[in-house]
Design goal:
- Belongs to the 'GDSL' lipolytic enzyme family.
- The structure is a single chain.
- The chain has 363 residues and is α/β, with parallel strands linked by helices.
- The chain has a domain of 249 residues: Rossmann fold, CATH 3.40.50.
- It is 37% helix and 10% strand.
- It is built from 12 helices and 10 strands.
- Strands 2-1-3-4-5-10 form a 6-stranded mixed sheet.
- α2 crosses α11, α7 runs parallel beside α9 and α10 packs across α11.
- It starts with 5 loop residues before the first helix and ends with a helix.
- The relative contact order is 0.15.
Length: 363
């Protein structure tokens, strides 16, 4: 993990006021299309039969005091990126009111517990995997074709930004759950990483074939450090589960290489790798630099590290939420999420490679 640079220290000042964000020319970005899991969901699972829901208090306690389906105490990564780009956070695809004019700033297809593989997260119930989200995007395209002509639609898609945050559930809700899934018996760690990368690569190229051209593809964070993994007792107290972090490191290295290959092969598009692992690793290694004081347990949850049982309805969360890196057993607080959003939009190549989201928006 890299040390905290001077500009990252200055970020702490910005972090104290979420409304003070750097905006680029909003006309450059007509919309955002969001794919992935609970890290970027804004309410799709509210409309599915699943245990992976967050439409109850105290979720949303810092989002106008109400739950929305975001797996956070407040705003999601997409909300913050939208603020910085001057684009409204797009609505959830499954919300029946997400029609016509509400679609003009893009759509959010992300679904909690969903993954790159169709099987990931099935023990929670219904969810939309990446392949299902691609099908949903095609349904949205059919709506757009009724709303604008072919040239306008082509320009709209090419100028919009695609944010994809997925892969975590393929590990924590598939490979690392042998009681439900056989992948850890059938694949070595490198083989499983390659399975994910090959599947994900086809999914991203499918989106490209449908007209999207600007992609931000986030890597997987240090999953061995989340309260859920710390709580399993596989690491000494106060330590992350190194074996899990090494697993996702294999995937992340492959994803960065895939982004380089895509940029060589598709000169009319731009693909960006988001270094989720590096940013959150920096936060965990240097918490005081970001005004965090609690890095090893959840603000809301039960059991060891408050990570054995995730946040329950009407549970009282910690009072000093801004000082916690993790909100529940699996997800960061909005304060930690903001750090990643800011660095993805404004950071150097170590945070977003080969360019950041602000530079992507201006292309």
């Amino acid at each position: 993990m890299k040390g905290v640079s001077e500009y990252m220290v200055l970020l702490v000042l910005v972090l104290q006021c979420f409304n003070m964000v750097v905006k680029v020319n909003s006309q450059k970005v007509p919309g955002m299309f969001v794919f992935g899991d609970s890290l970027v969901e804004v309410g799709n699972n509210n409309f599915l039969s699943t245990f992976a829901k967050s439409n109850f208090y105290p979720y949303g306690i810092d989002y106008n005091g109400r739950p929305t389906g975001r797996f956070s105490n407040g705003k999601s990564l997409i909300d913050f990126i939208g603020d910085m780009l001057g684009v409204p956070s797009p609505p959830p695809f499954l919300d029946p009111t997400s029609t016509e004019n509400k679609l003009l700033n893009g759509v959010n297809y992300a679904s909690g517990s969903g993954g790159i593989l169709d099987d990931s997260g099935r023990h929670y119930g219904d969810r939309h995997s990446m392949s299902r989200q691609l099908q949903n995007f095609e349904r949205t395209l059919n709506q757009y074709k009724k709303m604008m002509n072919e040239t306008a639609l082509s320009q709209f898609l090419a100028k919009s930004i695609v944010i994809v945050v997925t892969g975590s559930n393929d590990y924590i809700n598939n490979y690392l759950r042998p009681e439900y899934y056989g992948t850890s018996r059938n694949y070595s760690v490198p083989q499983f990483g390659n399975l994910l990368l090959n599947t994900f690569g086809r999914q991203i190229l499918a989106l490209y074939s449908l007209g999207l051209r600007k992609f931000f593809l986030a890597g997987v964070g240090p999953l061995g450090c989340i309260p859920n993994q710390r709580a399993n007792g596989f690491a000494p107290p106060g330590r992350c589960v190194d074996s899990v972090n090494q697993m996702v490191g294999t995937y992340n290295g492959g994803l960065r290489s895939m982004v380089e290959q895509f940029n060589r092969d598709h000169s009319d598009a731009k693909f960006v790798y988001g270094n989720t692992y590096g940013v959150f690793g920096d936060i965990l290694n240097n918490p005081a630099a970001y005004a965090f004081s609690v890095i090893d347990r959840a603000c809301c949850g039960l059991g060891r590290n408050r990570g054995q049982i995730s946040c329950l309805p009407m549970q009282f969360p910690c009072a000093n939420r801004a000082q916690y890196v993790f909100w529940d057993a699996f997800h960061p607080t909005q304060s930690a999420t903001y750090v990643f959003a800011w660095r993805a939009v404004n950071g150097p190549q170590n945070d977003a490679y080969p360019i950041n989201i602000q530079q992507l928006a201006q292309m």
